[in-house]
Design brief:
The protein has three domains: 145 residues, Immunoglobulin-like (Sandwich); 220 residues, no CATH class; 131 residues, Glutaredoxin (3-Layer(aba) Sandwich). Helix 17 runs parallel beside helix 19. Helix content is 46%, strand content 16%. The radius of gyration is 28 Å and the shape is globular. The two termini are 36 Å apart. Strands 1, 2, 4, 5, 6, 9, 10 and 13 form an eight-stranded mixed beta sheet that branches. By secondary structure, the chain is of the alpha+beta class.
Length: 624
């Protein structure tokens, strides 16, 4: 007999489908039966716990395009230790979704394959996640779709209300691809210019101010050439981003969802910060402005200017200013040549202030002459860079944070080893020191991510298991309490299933597409979303708020962005699904200075159509 720790014995899965009489449509059902004493999580389960997932193998015989809906609400508990809501199922639960069968296929011969990914847990901990494969065939009874759905306890829909159809969202909200090129190019230029005003680029704008100070008194030709190299550095990044968007479908800022990218960028910014603080000197003339003021050997050169342009643009990508989303959405729906052209205009727009200074050097007359102030300013920039590293670590997956810090300590040791070498040392001596420093950095990386990451992940998993066990003995009051800031909206994690269930129940739904690395998103949350006026309007009109988080890879969030016409995947982005007409959502993007744009969109959508309890429409109820 199988032991209690055997996931196969704890959860059993069966599947079947039915066909509506006289039609090529029907319903696919997947049922999980859970052993007594165990539970699994709903599809709406927030991280770090594993949400149940159903995957259907692609087939040209049948189309399954809508989200699965559960037959009954889940049990909702508040995890006291880490403040995460738990959505659990015990006993048995069935998920259903509509399907459409190809014209030439006999339903009696059709087989639908897939798997159910679940993690079973009990009072003392959790079993490893398990994929349960299933094969669905035609139900012998072939019960009607409506009768089976009502028997399962799904909420009845308003017969006059159009159901949410994910395939019709894009048609209802055509993207910017209809705009003519002569409008898109100025829009792209303006969007690039505005990026210079975003907080993401502030750490490296200071570098450019120092460069302007160094350029004071230089010939007009030299000033123009250096600013041209700086602009080319910016342009090079935009062309790389255009390549990723045109051929890999990478959205604006989406690289920040990659742990590897964030670690590499944090390491680069960290070693730059150490250079600003005088620990070592980056071997690029004039990059940091080291050396005596006016020392030609340390003045900015082409490589330094180009590198600053690259770094400025990379750090700008977490921000998205006005017009940028529309311009990039148009770009990624066009042939590659036009995609490159639009991205290039964004780059030219961002570089335009520096090209203007290059053409008219007198514009930098306001910058003080080179002097001791530059060293003080450089040290301040060093601390700003270290603060940027802390920001990059803030949205990194928890098990990677300590290894990343350990790796940067190793990088700091390597930089210190290089910095202690005299500038008068021979070329061989300098090469030997660099090799030794590279060995220190490599050893730090191996220890940090080859060993320490595994240790931290194990500790994190154990802490989660202990917290899971502890919440079973918590009082009902503690288990159901939910604390949030006074004006914070009652956000719930986005899923296709949850959006479909809310809209089918007559709710107006606001979806916020955001990420922890998106500073513009955070600014909008403070100024427009989590605001007293917005909260009062949401509460008074029964509006549901869902948070579509792109901090880490989120396929369902990316899919909805695509269906809404946001092909570039740029954020911040907002969608309001009106009650009774969810296939015509109201879309917003850009930077907001007040809650009025959000409130106007919610007013246009109208209130929810009924005052049903949230638990009855979300598929989540609270154990009391």
């Amino acid at each position: 007999a199988k032991g209690p720790a055997d996931a196969e014995a704890v959860v059993t899965v069966r599947a079947e489908f039915s066909v509506n009489e006289g039609a090529r449509t029907g319903e696919l059902s997947v049922t999980a039966t859970i052993r007594d004493g165990y539970h699994i999580y709903a599809m709406t389960q927030p991280k770090p716990f594993l949400a149940t997932q159903i995957h259907i193998e692609p087939s040209d015989q049948v189309e399954v395009s809508e989200a699965f809906r559960p037959s009954r609400p889940a049990i909702a508990l508040r995890h006291k230790s880490i403040d995460v809501e738990l959505h659990e199922y015990e006993g048995a639960v069935t998920w259903t979704t509509p399907l459409r069968i190809a014209d030439a296929v006999d339903p009696r011969d059709l087989t639908i394959s897939g798997h159910l990914l679940v993690q079973a847990c009990h009072d003392q901990g959790c079993l490893p996640p398990k994929k349960h494969p299933f094969t669905a065939k035609l139900n012998v009874d072939n019960r009607d779709l409506t009768a089976r759905t009502e028997a399962a306890g799904a909420p009845s829909e308003n017969p006059t209300q159009a159901p949410l159809d994910f395939n019709k969202l894009e048609a209802a909200n055509p993207s910017a691809s209809t705009l003519p090129l002569f409008i898109v190019l100025p829009m792209a230029f303006a969007a690039g210019f505005i990026l210079n005003l975003m907080p993401c680029v502030l750490p490296v704008i200071g570098l450019k101010i120092m460069a302007f100070a160094q350029q004071a008194g230089d010939s007009r030709g030299r000033v123009f050439v250096l600013n041209l190299w700086y602009s080319l550095g910016m342009m090079s990044v935009f062309l790389v981003l255009a390549t990723l968007a045109a051929f890999l479908g990478l959205g604006w800022g989406q690289q920040f969802s990659s742990v590897t990218f964030n670690i590499v960028l944090a390491a680069i910014v960290f070693v730059f910060g150490l250079s600003f603080l005088g620990i070592w000197e980056i071997p690029i003339p004039g990059f940091v402005g080291s050396g005596a003021a006016g020392d030609l050997a340390h003045r900015e050169g082409a490589v330094g200017a180009f590198s600053k342009g690259v770094l400025t643009t990379v750090l700008a990508t977490p921000c998205s200013g006005p017009l940028l989303g529309s311009a990039l959405t148009w770009a990624v729906t066009q042939p590659p040549l036009l995609t490159y052209l639009v991205f290039a205009f964004v780059g030219i727009g961002m570089a335009s202030p520096y090209l203007l200074v290059g053409a008219f050097p007198k514009l930098i007359a306001f910058v003080p002459k080179p002097g001791e102030w530059m060293n003080t300013f450089k040290h301040i920039l060093g601390f700003v860079m270290l603060a940027t590293v802390a920001y990059l670590l803030s949205f990194m997956l928890i098990p990677y944070v300590v290894p990343a810090v350990a790796f940067m300590i190793g990088l700091g040791a390597a930089c210190w080893w290089i910095g202690r070498t005299l500038s008068t040392a021979s070329l061989n001596a300098k090469a030997r020191v660099w090799i030794q420093a590279a060995a220190i950095a490599a050893a730090a990386g191996f220890v940090s991510f080859g060993w320490l990451h595994g240790v931290m992940k194990s500790r994190f998993d154990r802490e989660v298991d202990r917290s899971l066990a502890a919440r079973h003995v918590a009082s009902a009051q503690d288990a159901t309490s939910s604390q949030r800031d006074n004006n914070e909206l009652p956000w719930q994690p986005y899923s296709h299933e949850l959006l479909a269930r809310y809209t089918s129940a007559g709710k107006t739904v606001l979806v916020d597409f955001t990420a922890d690395w998106c500073l513009t998103c955070k600014a909008n949350e403070a100024a427009a979303l989590n605001h007293t006026a917005t909260r009062r309007f949401v509460e008074a009109n029964g509006i549901v708020t869902l948070k579509a988080d792109k901090t880490h890879p989120a396929p369902e969030v990316d899919d909805l962005l695509q269906r809404l016409g946001n092909k570039a995947g740029s954020i911040p982005f907002y969608a309001v699904f009106p009650a009774g007409n969810p296939n015509q959502p109201i879309l917003l993007d850009g930077l907001f200075a007040s809650p009025q744009p959000i409130i106007d969109a919610l007013q246009k959508a109208g209130p929810s159509r009924n005052d049903a309890q949230r638990a009855d429409t979300t598929g989540v109820r609270t154990r009391r």
